[in-house]
Amino acid sequence: MVEGKISPIHGWAAMKAEGPVEPWSYVPRPLGPNDVEIQIQFCGICGSDLHTIDSGWGPTTYPAIVGHEIIGKVITKGEKVSNLDIGQTVGVGAQVFACLQKDCKACSIDMDPHCPKGVFTYNAKYSDGENAQGGYAEAVRVDANYVIPIPSNIEPQYAASLMCAGVTVFTPMIHNGVKKGDRVGVVGIGGLGHLALQYARALGCEVTAFSSSDNKKEECFKLGATRFINIKKEDDLAKAEKSLDHLFITSNARSNDYTQFSRWMDLRGKICLLALPENKIELNPGSLILGSVYFGGSLIGGINDLKSALEFASKHNIKPVIEKLPMEKVNEGIQRVRDGKVRYRVVLEN
Ligand SMILES: NC(=O)c1ccc[n+]([C@@H]2O[C@H](COP(=O)([O-])OP(=O)(O)OC[C@H]3O[C@@H](n4cnc5c(N)ncnc54)[C@H](OP(=O)(O)O)[C@@H]3O)[C@@H](O)[C@H]2O)c1
Ligand SMILES: [Zn+2]
Ligand SMILES: [Zn+2]
After folding, report:
1. Closest Cα partner for 212 from 252, 246, 245?
2. Which atom of ligand 1 is nearest to the CA of 212?
3. pLDDT by residue (tens digit) across 184-198?
4. Is 76 near ligand 1, meaning CB less than 6 Å away?
5. Is 47 close to ligand 1, i.e. is its CB under 6 Å away?
6. Is the beta carbon of 48 within 6 A of some atom in ligand 1?
7. Would you say residue 256 has pLDDT above 80?
8. Ligand 1 neighbour 169 (Cβ under 6 A)
9. What share of the chain is helix, strand, coil (3-state, %, to 5)?
10. Which of 68, 178, 223, 235 makes an SS bond possible with 121, Cβ 3.0 to 4.6 Å?
């Protein structure tokens, strides 16, 4: 670990849509009194990184260093930061700033990802006009409120994927009232999905994995699924009819038929969209109304959700399945995600 500041910060940046990431460096913003600089040890590759590299959600500001499942050690802190120590192992997720004021509707109810002044970890601008840059890099400088201590029984490389994928699936489970005995479905068993199986099982649910990949079946059972349904097989799908209380959609396959999801829900079942497809989705409204089914979505999780997701993982031994790669092989990792080959999260290591 180095102590002090790293400048310029070397990283791997997307330069144009769908291109490879390339070595690039930037001079970070001045370290403010509430800021922390972290020397990055690990960073997961999230599906959102690819949407951003590709300008899939609208034009990305290039060069863009993506990556928001960051784990590292505190190497410098501003004079007002008292709750973090130099050398401490910490994580940063998909958000690096919010106002956290009582008169902010979102912040006052622990929904800080929706703060109007919020800044995401990459492809976002700070109020001073600087671009936020993410975790495919040697270091990152962020607001101390978004620097989360990692429980000591979670090894750093396994903590990375909890910072986005983990909190994103756990938060709506808690806020949508998922409880022991509920029948929970998870569509798409990737980075988010394989953690959703584990969190739902640890909450005491009956868990169905809906996947397009038959070769994930055995692993799904090990991860906590009690039933596996191949989303491409009609006779398999018939078994899903009215069989769920909650459904979490983490697959953004273009061919997903959203109307079929409502058919899987029992009365007043809740569907929660977590994947953010680049295209519009089609959904027959009658399919919701005739079963009194709710359809909604959820955005990452706030600071307190992050702490809860880590604490719950630490208590229930929730552990991402990862493929570690050296940071220099980041393009290989991205390609493995594009090809759907990853089991279940690539974690880059410096
Ligand atoms: N709501 C939020 O705040 C939030 C936070 C993080 C990520 N996300 C979004 O959630 C989605 C999933 O992220 P992730 O990191 O879990 O991705 P991932 O690791 O690539 O997993 C996606 C899974 O979806 C299924 N899939 C089937 N066809 C696909 C296709 N054509 N393209 C992509 N996936 C396909 C695959 O599972 P099977 O083989 O089992 O079918 C795949 O493993 C992304 O859209 C991401 O942007 C949203
Ligand atoms: Zn993410
Ligand atoms: Zn706010």
Report:
1. 252
2. 41
3. 999 999 999 999 999
4. no
5. yes
6. yes
7. no
8. no
9. 30, 30, 45
10. 68
- Rounded-to-integer distance, Cα 254 and Cα 297, Å: 18
Is the CB of residue 172 below 6 angstroms from any atom belonging to ligand 1?
no
Residue 1 pLDDT exceeds 90? no
> Of 48, 176, 221, which is best to mutate to test ligand 1, by the most ligand atoms within 8 angstroms of its C-beta?
48
Q: In sequence order, what are the residues at sequence separation of 6 or more whose Cβ sits closer than 8 angstroms to the Cβ of residue 260? A: 237
Domains of the chain: 9-164+301-349 (3.90.180.10), 165-297 (3.40.50.720)
Q: Are 150 and 31 in contact (CB under 8 A)?
A: no
Query: Ligand 1 pocket test: which of 121, 212, 251, 306 has the largest number of ligand atoms within 8 Å of its C-beta?
Result: 251
Place of tokens 């909650």: 246
Long-range contacts of range 324-328, CB-CB < 8 Å, 24 or more positions apart? 324/157, 324/348, 324/349, 325/349, 327/12, 327/43, 327/136
d(CA 182, CA 243): 10
Atom of ligand 1 nearest to the CA of 165: 6
Instruction: Give, in order, the Cα–Cα distances in Å from 323 to each of 27, 147, 150.
Output: 30, 24, 20
99 lines ligand 1 (CB under 6 A): no
Both structure tokens of 29: 């913003």
Confidence tier at 3 by pLDDT (50, 70, 90) = confident
